[in-house]
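Sample pair:
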Amino acid sequence: MKTRKSVWLAMLLLVCLLLAFGATRSGGPQTQQDRIDLVTSHLACPTCSGESVFVSRASAAEAIRTEVARQVGAGIRTDDEIISYIEQRFGSQVLLVPRSTGLDSLVWSLPAAVLIIALSLLVGAFARWGRRTPGAPSVADETLVKNALAEPSQDDNES
């Protein structure tokens, strides 16, 4: 009964944390420069290792920033459409943030799900082991102990 309460308490805490996170998020970028910064921070520089287009000063990153600024200024595409356009031109290696659909979402969510399941199984196993009480010794155990006590030890034979 106590483990049920703790599970419900943990779930309630998780819901509260997620609600607090969702409530504190900003409504999104306000200006064109904010949109440009947001989009370029989600794109990796194709010639740099591990840098975003927003941070990098490489010529390829400058070209991508210019293209993003042009498309944001034109106002014809959403941020996701701009990112998809850049991805089509340079390949999926330019995405710093993985897509949240299809196989990409499975690749990112599956390890987290496995970890959560493994931890819950471990907690359950430890709880069962903690509740287990030692049983009475079996007849075989009692016989083994009696025989061991009845045999003279080697120390008694030497003296």
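Residues 27-114 form a domain with the Helicase, Ruva Protein; domain 3 fold (CATH 1.10.8.640).
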